[in-house]
Amino acid sequence: MRLVLLGPPGSGKGTQAAVLAEELGIPAISTGEIVRAQIAAATEAGRQAEVYSSAGELVPDELTVAMLATRLAEADCRGGYLLDGFPRTLGQAERLHDHLAAAGLSLDGVLELVVDEDEVVRRLGARRVQVDGAWVTRDDDRPDTVLRRMQVYRELTAPLSDFYAAAGLLRRVDAHGEVAEVTARLRAALPPAAAPGGSGG
Ligand code: AMP
C-alpha cells in the first residue's frame, strides 16, 4: 500500500503519518527527516540541502529524489509506505509516478490535511523539537522562514492537490482539532484496501 500525505508545514503531517503508518504496518517516510539526518551527518548531500532548507526553500528535485530513492530501495519499503512531505512539486510527483510505473506499481491514495494558514503559522511558532535532550526551535520554524515556507507551499506544492484530484486519488481531510480527531478522519478517508483490517497488499 503506497500512500502520500499532503499538507502545509504545521498541518500535523509528521504526527499523523507516524500514527497511521504504525496502524497500517508500513514505514512513514519523511523527506524532511531524511534531509535533517543528512545535514546532521554532514554528508555531501546534507551540505547541499542545508543551503536551501535553512532558508525555507525546497531542496532541488534532483537531490531530494535521489535521497528518497535510496530510502525506498530499503527492504522495509517492499510492502508499501506512507510518504510525508514528498512530493512537494509537480516535477517530484511525476518522478514518483515514473519510479512506481517502472516497477509496475502506482499510488493507492493521497490524503490532504486541510488547515487555515493562520492556524499553521500559530502552530509552527509554538513548535519545539528535542535535540540532544533539549527542547529547541527548529531553525526553519523561525517566523521569517515560516512565512517563506508557506509561500513556497502555496506556489509549488498546493497545485498537487488538483493534480491528484484529477487522477482520482485525492481525499481532503479537515486538520483542525485534536490529534486523535484528525487521525480518525484520516482513517475514514483511507482507500478501502489500506484501511486497518482491510485486505492489505
Ligand atoms: P519538513 O520537515 O517536511 O517541513 O521539511 C523540512 C525541509 O526539508 C523543507 O523546508 C525543505 O527544505 C526540505 N524538504 C523536505 N521535503 C522536501 C521535498 N519533497 N522537496 C524539497 N525539499 C524538501
Automatic annotation (TrEMBL):
EC id: 2.7.4.3
Family statement drawn from the similarity comment of this UniProt entry: Belongs to the adenylate kinase family.
Pathway where this protein functions: Purine metabolism; AMP biosynthesis via salvage pathway; AMP from ADP: step 1/1
Compartment(s): Cytoplasm
Species of the source: Petropleomorpha daqingensis
Name by which UniProt lists this protein: Adenylate kinase
This protein's domain notes: Consists of three domains, a large central CORE domain and two small peripheral domains, NMPbind and LID, which undergo movements during catalysis. The LID domain closes over the site of phosphoryl transfer upon ATP binding. Assembling and dissambling the active center during each catalytic cycle provides an effective means to prevent ATP hydrolysis.
Task performed by this protein: Catalyzes the reversible transfer of the terminal phosphate group between ATP and AMP. Plays an important role in cellular energy homeostasis and in adenine nucleotide metabolism.
Complex and partners: Monomer.
Pfam families named in the record: ADK
Major subcellular location class: cytoplasm
